[in-house]
Specification:
Elements: E1 6-8, H1 11-18, H2 34-39, H3 46-55, H4 59-63, H5 66-75, H6 88-100, H7 106-119, H8 132-142, H9 145-154, E2 167-168, E3 171-182, H10 187-193, E4 208-216, E5 222-229, H11 234-239, E6 249-253, H12 260-267, E7 272-276, E8 287-288, E9 294-298, E10 312-321, E11 332-336, H13 346-352, H14 357-370, H15 382-410, H16 419-432
Parallel strand pairs: 1-10, 3-6, 6-7
Antiparallel strand pairs: 2-3, 3-4, 4-5, 7-11, 8-9, 9-10, 10-11
Helix pairs in contact: 3-15, 5-9, 6-8, 6-15, 9-15, 15-16
């Protein structure tokens, strides 16, 4: 272990100065927008509220166009052979709405979707809200494939060069992490997903599904995810997400994700990495650098270390946090693929790693503010679970796109906006405007007087 370590203090202030706004590919770590943030402290100023209201008009059908949904339904082979009370396109939006109205039952959610059409006399007279059983069968008939296809087609990082908090120098910041979700206690869910054991050797109350995703730090959008049974490891699921990493990204990850193979696979995408590693990982200092970091090699196995066979060069940053509230000085160890200390100084990367907490905030938005604290998912079958989780990711993505658009319009950091308030705005717009239709004919989009949609 290195003899000299960094001591990092005043992390919140340093994070703001590092990730405020992108200055171009040859930035020096200084970012714009700090004075603007000081001028707009409230999350609900009139300017922000106006921008949110404007962005939410036709929220879901603008982000997920009906014509695209129809096409994906056909490609997945889920189109109707005859006219139905619940066409597949409507059921796709219904599943997304279940995530936005997670505290409401099936019929109530469909009632909310139809209310705006009734007010505008755009609802067919003979159409009535189906029963909960009919809505359940419609979900089963649709399956998970069309929603996953929609997510894969739409979801991507959305930060622009003007988006505050999304860039470090020339790199787009993203984070990799995982969580578990409680499922209804059914035989199918238990058999497929499994459940954790308790401290007394008994089974826990609910089966659980393992979810790993990639999120953009500045905007909180999840742009890829993978699910699996509880026994499936995070690194196994994470490997499925490497397809979403591209050159120009800087990916942050916790120590649970590091392995020699996963590190190399992630680096092969062209993205740069900043991952925390465990203390017991042997890292011999080979060249000490001026910023306090050092170069070392990682190896595929212990046997390969002695002859130094098949090693990969990495840069190591070791530091402690200057925090009087911590009883002991915990040593943090980071590996990065950015080998040049002038391109990314060690003290900046140590502070930057704290941006991984933005993933945890995005996860809290998903699990607490959309799903509801302590609430299990609705679905009683593995296929339904996959569909429902995708609906949540699509709903969260839509909310975050709305917030990003509003933040750009107001010229502020998206993190200054209230996620819960934006959800409420979208809920009101869904109920009050012509967004959904049971008809096969796709209704025309409402015109926007401002002309900037």
């Amino acid at each position: 272990m290195a003899e000299a370590r960094l001591t990092v203090g005043h992390v919140p202030e340093a994070r703001r100065s590092l990730t405020r706004g992108h200055q171009g590919s040859k930035g020096t770590g200084q970012f714009s927008g700090y004075l603007l943030e000081q001028c707009m402290r409230t999350k609900r100023s009139p300017e922000i509220l106006s921008a949110l209201e404007h962005a939410a008009l036709g929220a879901l059908t603008r982000i997920y166009p009906p014509a695209m949904v129809e096409e994906l339904v056909r490609e997945c082979g889920r189109q109707e052979a005859r006219r139905r009370l619940l066409p597949a396109r409507l059921v796709v939006y219904f599943v997304i709405a279940l995530a936005l109205f997670s505290d409401s039952g099936y019929r109530e959610v469909m009632q909310k979707l139809s209310e705006g059409l009734r007010q505008l006399h755009a609802w067919v007279d003979h159409w009535s809200v189906p029963t909960s059983a009919a809505l359940t069968i419609a979900r089963q008939r649709l399956g998970a494939a069309p929603l996953r296809a929609l997510f894969d087609k739409i979801a991507r990082p959305i930060a622009t060069l003007q988006t505050c908090g999304s860039w470090y120098r020339q790199w787009r910041l993203c984070a990799l992490d995982g969580t578990v979700l409680d499922l209804p206690d059914t035989e199918d869910n238990d058999k497929y997903f499994g459940r954790p054991g308790s401290s007394r050797g008994e089974r826990s109350s609910y089966p659980q599904v393992h979810v790993v995703s990639l999120a953009e730090c500045g905007t909180h959008v999840h742009f890829d995810y993978a699910t699996g049974p509880l026994h499936t490891g995070e690194t196994t699921l994470a490997r499925q997400l490497l397809r979403a990493l591209t050159p120009g990204m800087l990916c942050l990850a916790d120590r649970n994700f590091f392995s020699f193979d996963l590190w190399n696979a992630a680096r092969a995408t062209g993205a740069e990495l900043l991952w925390r590693v465990r203390k017991n990982l042997i890292l011999e200092p080979e060249q000490r650098l001026a910023d306090g970091s050092y170069l070392s090699h990682i190896y595929p196995s212990t046997d390969a270390r002695q002859p130094k066979r098949g090693g990969v060069l990495v840069r190591v940053i070791e530091y402690t946090l200057d925090d009087p509230g911590r009883p002991s000085l915990e040593i943090y160890r980071l590996l990065t693929s950015v080998l040049d200390p002038q391109g990314a100084p060690a003290d900046e990367l140590a502070v930057l790693y704290c941006e991984r907490q933005e993933f945890e905030i995005a996860e809290d938005e998903f699990k607490t503010h959309l799903r509801g604290m302590g609430r299990v998912l609705r679905s009683h079958t593995p296929e339904g679970v996959e569909q429902e989780i995708c609906g949540y990711f699509l709903a969260h993505y839509a909310v975050r796109v709305m917030m990003h658009e509003a933040a750009l319009k107001a010229g502020i950091d998206p993190q200054r906006l209230s996620f819960t308030h934006t959800v409420h705005v979208i809920q009101r717009k869904i109920i009050g405007r012509r967004v959904f239709s049971p008809l096969w004919v796709v209704p025309p989009e409402p015109t926007d007087p401002a002309g900037d949609r």
